[in-house]
Amino acid sequence: MMFSPLNYAILFIYLGAMLGIGWLFAGRQKSTEDFFLAGRKMPWLVVAMSMYASLTSAVTYMGLPSAAYQENISLIVVCIISPLVAPVLIYVFYPFYRRLHVTTSYEYIGLRFGRSARFSVSGLFILARLGWLGTVIYAPAVALSVVTGLPLWASIVLMGLIATGYTALGGISADIWTDVVQFVIMVVGAAWLALTLIHRVPGGVEGIISTAGAAGHLRVLDWHFSLYEMTGAVVALSFFFQLMQDYGTDQVTVQRLMTTSSFRGVVKAILFNAITDFLIVGLLLFIGIGMFAYYAAFPALIPADIPGDRVMPYYIIHALPNGVSGLLVTAIFAAAMSSMDSGISSLATVVVNDFVKPLRTRIVDDRQDLKLARWLTLAFGVAATAVAFYISSFEHIIKAYTAIISLFSGPVLALFLLGIFSRHARFPAWVLGCVIAIPATLCIQYVVKVHWVYYFPFSFGVTFLIGLIAGFFIKGEPADPALTIWGRGKLRDVQ
């Protein structure tokens, strides 16, 4: 069974609508403030939906069911960790950003550690997000290739072109409003998929739970230590810091939250995301064990050699009615495009605000920066599409995502926390931590070959500990307390 004309119609109507939203907002941006931050006037609920859709890429949408299908549902711990991270975001990170009136989170690093530090973390962000964008494009391209028979390369190119097109046209406003549509499609698609599995698996919910439990797929409260397995304790540790990075320091999220008009809107958006995380992560993992139970009951309906990452699109196209399958493949595309548009937009923002403007020696009309931002958006879209071809060499999309993010984003989080919590933290000490942590992380990935869930906490932990200890041996004046959590109240509120 292949994609029907009705399914193609549904998919291409959606793709056309996304380009239409981009065209609707084209030309409305009169400054870089409009292009990057939508004039800081977006409603908090719209921003909240956009923020969740941006980080819930097709890597998550396909990867979580794949992890539950192949291993177990230890990632359910993320449902608990996400609400625990929310107070850290509200009380530690965002008061700095709002009071400093930043466009990028890395402006804080520049004030705290100097221009060299700002350039360094901005560069690491670019490397991390380009790799992340490669996985974002590759995941739905795999789905499209599976269900339509299109060559994988053609699917990758199609995915890259559409998202780059509407982002370059409409800036952050187009990104946010397309994300709202994509958020709704993602949530409805996941709920629909779960209901079909309950209906199709013998015994419904009880049958799914019993089959998955008998095969060891419900193992969560297994707290034993193993470098080569995913257990609940390690997931809790890893994702506590990873979610702190994703929502607290990463420009993809910070840029969206800076489009709101008040700090109260920021708080509401963060809490909305924590609650949504709690619901959607659980739903996606249920889909994974549901597909396991379905194919355990009907083993003849699936090829024995199909990779775990492709089970979800295979189930969608072979087990679901015509039209419904088209809507659910569209949901995978929605998850991917909501992440790609925000990724390339944030990359352009960082280049203009953290490299071009600080290094400029003369006054330039803001309209020139606006034009540059559009060209950078196109360039990063092309670069991310190229990276997707490299990502295709990985066997597991979550593993590919984590391998890249841990190398570059772990050290970035370490510098933010060092700067916020210690007046004695020094940039050279952090550099020493990076020099040791990045090769060591590559070692555990390719030599020791530990489970991917260890990558991020290892990279962050090594950088943070070395940076903290070495900082006490480097001479220098303590930082301005107003730029740390100990004296933050002295910052002038510029809301």
Overall description:
With 495 residues, the chain is mainly alpha-helical. It has one domain (5-397): Sodium/glucose cotransporter (Up-down Bundle). 75% of the residues lie in helices and 0% in strands. Helix 9 packs across helix 12. The radius of gyration is 22 Å and the shape is globular.
State the separation between the terminal residues, measured CA to CA: 56 Å
Number of strands: 0
| Structural shape | globular
The CATH topology name reads: Sodium/glucose cotransporter
Element-level helix/strand string: HHHHHHHHHHHHHHHHHH
Strand content: under 5%
What count of structural domains? 1
In the predicted model, the low-confidence regions spanning at least 5 consecutive residues are: none
Tell me the radius of gyration: 22 Å
State the CATH architecture: Up-down Bundle
Tell me the name of the CATH class. Mainly Alpha
For the biggest sheet, the summary is: none
**Helix count?**
18
User: Can you give the mean pLDDT?
Assistant: 86
- Structural class, please? mainly alpha
Q: Please identify which CATH superfamily we are dealing with.
A: Sodium/glucose cotransporter
Q: Please give the share of residues in helix.
A: over 70%
List the helices and strands and how they pair.
Blueprint: H1 5-25, H2 32-37, H3 44-55, H4 58-70, H5 77-100, H6 106-113, H7 115-148, H8 152-200, H9 204-214, H10 232-248, H11 251-257, H12 263-297, H13 311-319, H14 324-359, H15 366-391, H16 397-421, H17 427-448, H18 455-471
